[in-house]
Amino acid sequence: xxxxxxxxxxxxxxxxxxxxxxxxxxxxxxxxxxxxxxxxxxxxxxxxxxxxxxxxxxxxxxxxxxxxxxxxxxxxxxxxxxxxxxxxxxxxxxxxxxxxxxxxxxxxxxxxxxxxxxxxxxxxxxxxxxxxxxxxxxxxxxxxxxxxxxxxxxxxxxxxxxxxxxxxxxxxxxxxxxxxxxxxxxxxxxxxxxxxxxxxx
Length: 201
Fold this sequence. Notes:
- By secondary structure, the protein is α/β, with parallel strands linked by helices.
- The chain has one domain: P-loop containing nucleotide triphosphate hydrolases (Rossmann fold).
- Helix content is 34%, strand content 21%.
- The chain contains 5 helices and 7 strands.
- A 7-stranded mixed beta sheet has the order 1-3-4-2-5-6-7, with helices on both faces.
- The longest helix is centred in the middle third of the chain and has 17 residues, at 86-102.
- The protein is globular.
């Protein structure tokens, strides 16, 4: 897929205020500091489309971006050690859960995982929640450029082996690096394939 156009649409904390266009949506979410904004900018070929920050937890709203005038990329707040009060975190959690439970335009979530780290309980629990709520998702391993070439597949395979203990079939997964633009075509082509199948329904 070629991204010819990518533009910011709206930020909000209420699912009811999301765009009414009925276009398919793909939501990106992960722990704070997983490289979500950098990945979104890389996918859309725009350096400052999503705001990046050295401070984890920068994204605190549901952010919609219109891609190629035909689908929405949704940037959701990261979870983990975001620098926010307990009250703020509860608020973030509520509207993220509301988004996943109520947003009918959502086609798939993309769960970002830092490839350098061992499986984290918070990520595994979130995957389990997505599965229990019948929300389709794919795993996007990030920051592959921080590893040696031979470590990349080893780390990814080890992570997927852990998932096999809980999952009968594994979700799609992609290995990416925003720095090296690795995995860009794989993720975009996956979205394009889904969009083409939806258009036939």
